[in-house]
């Protein structure tokens, strides 16, 4: 399976980089801090009205990740004995929880995309109970800015990890420096978790943490390739509908006509999403091949999973990831648009489709810290377990495929375990699937055997009817969210259920 992924950027380890790699261990930031130099500005830099929503241990905030029941308060879990602290750090809110029987290790949690509002909120990890039951402390930041600001997410999460001891001390508990620090996250937080262990991040971040392992879940582990894919979807939609050269930023002018060509029930207009029998089916085939190729449950995911409208809703953007970049940053030149079994129309669409090019250096290395969209190059030296649902069409399965390809290209394939989960929406894992992934990484990092995973890049393997069954677990009412239970029930009704492990 050949994926349209960007060329890797070789990263040379300078003397400074080597110093950082050897100096920053545990949770303390005892490595050198790069000297910030003036940089170009972008829309995100002018957004200064973000504010932490006042909170305490009993306030419940919206929690968009799986396993949290929709809202997550910070009261003690039943049967646990922990210290729980909240506060603000560098303009970001935080939650920190430490069991009384702390094992000396810390897990950082990175939440997903929070939209474009000003309110900054923080989430509990979906694996909170597992961590506390096993003696791990955890901490999570709201980040100091919303939007798709992975740079802020990495820096603020790292700053919180480095402040862990001081926060405990300020609250009357003297703790040693964590012996190990790990990171996990969902969606944009999966991008943060994957980027946080990259050599480039360790060398260029202003807040440095050397994580011992990572678990990106439903993560944007292809970094800008996600936004390239959204642009490619729009390019293909316009080509199939017969308006290939209409300016991409003026999508609203043609959206109604394109929708009429492609959909009987358009994304966002109701469920199930239903394509038209000719042009619509051609576009659906292209989308399947753009997002990971032939795989179980794709059709059900498109029609009923609920994540495709979010991808379709990105059409018309200006290529800056809503102001995270200051110039057009997406590129479609590496994509091929494939309609299964139809070489004539495949050729016609590829000939007609716009070829979109990024502005040179739109996401170059910065002089004042991380890239504006930190890269996931596959240059990491710690164990990573990544999980992704087959039917995710907002952060599609192609993201974990890109991660595998990049890690292999950098000689780090042996450090990455990838798992395919038979979910049909974005981040709709069961809690047990997430716990097993985190547990697998922690035991592996601690000297245990390398965990089992799934081949995510061999087309015939991914297309097999039972693909993804190995690490898929049934939803449990009262533990998993109602949405996750409903989606897994839908899979069962459609004949997509797996045999019991």
UniProtKB/TrEMBL annotation:
Presence of keyword Signal: yes
Highest taxon, organism lineage: Bacteria
SUPFAM superfamilies per the UniProt record, alphabetical: alpha/beta-Hydrolases
Molecular-function GO terms, alphabetical: hydrolase activity
Stretches assigned to coiled coil: none
Entry keywords, A to Z: Hydrolase, Signal
Residues of the signal peptide: 1-22
Protein name: Alpha/beta hydrolase
């Amino acid at each position: 399976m050949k994926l349209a992924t960007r060329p890797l950027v070789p990263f040379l380890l300078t003397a400074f980089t080597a110093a950082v790699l050897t100096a920053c261990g545990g949770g303390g930031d005892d490595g050198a801090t790069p000297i910030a130099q003036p940089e170009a500005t972008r829309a995100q830099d002018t957004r200064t009205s973000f504010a932490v929503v006042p909170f305490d241990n009993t306030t419940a905030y919206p929690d968009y990740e799986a396993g949290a029941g929709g809202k997550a308060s910070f009261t003690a879990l039943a049967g646990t004995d922990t210290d729980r602290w909240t506060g603000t750090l560098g303009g970001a809110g935080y939650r920190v929880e430490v069991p009384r029987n702390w094992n000396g290790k810390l897990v950082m949690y990175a939440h997903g995309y929070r939209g474009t509002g000003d309110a900054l909120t923080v989430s509990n990890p979906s694996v909170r109970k597992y961590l506390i039951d096993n003696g791990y402390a955890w901490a999570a930041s709201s980040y100091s800015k919303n939007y798709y600001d992975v740079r802020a997410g990495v820096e603020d999460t790292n700053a919180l990890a480095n402040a862990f001891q001081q926060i405990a001390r300020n609250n009357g508990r003297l703790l040693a420096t964590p012996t190990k620090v790990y990171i996990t996250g969902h969606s944009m937080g999966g991008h943060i978790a994957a980027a946080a262990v990259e050599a480039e991040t360790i060398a260029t971040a202003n807040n440095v943490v050397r994580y011992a392992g990572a678990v990106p879940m439903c993560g944007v582990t292809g970094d800008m390739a996600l936004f390239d894919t959204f642009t490619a979807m729009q390019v293909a939609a316009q080509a199939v509908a017969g308006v290939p050269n209409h300016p991409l930023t003026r999508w609203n002018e043609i959206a109604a006509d394109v929708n009429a060509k492609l959909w009987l029930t358009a994304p966002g207009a109701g469920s199930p999403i239903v394509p038209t029998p000719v042009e619509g089916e051609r576009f659906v085939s292209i989308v399947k091949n753009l997002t990971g190729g032939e795989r179980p449950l794709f059709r059900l995911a498109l029609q009923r999973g609920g994540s495709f409208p979010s991808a379709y809703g990105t059409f018309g953007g200006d290529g800056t990831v809503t102001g995270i970049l200051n110039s057009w940053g997406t590129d479609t030149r590496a994509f091929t648009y494939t309609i299964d079994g139809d070489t004539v129309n495949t050729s016609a669409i590829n000939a007609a489709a716009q070829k979109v090019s990024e502005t040179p250096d739109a996401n170059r290395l910065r002089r004042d810290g991380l890239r504006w969209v930190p890269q996931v190059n596959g240059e990491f030296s710690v164990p990573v377990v990544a999980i992704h649902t087959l039917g995710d069409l907002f952060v599609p399965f192609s993201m974990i495929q890109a991660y595998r390809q990049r890690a292999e290209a950098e000689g780090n394939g042996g450090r990455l375990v990838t798992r395919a989960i038979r979910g049909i929406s974005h981040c709709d894992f069961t809690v047990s699937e997430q716990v097993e992934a985190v547990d697998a990484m922690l035991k592996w990092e601690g000297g245990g055997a390398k965990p089992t995973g799934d081949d995510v890049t061999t087309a015939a393997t991914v297309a097999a009817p039972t693909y993804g069954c190995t690490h898929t677990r049934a939803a449990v009412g009262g533990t998993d969210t109602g949405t996750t239970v409903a989606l897994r029930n839908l899979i069962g009704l459609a004949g997509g259920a797996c045999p019991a492990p």
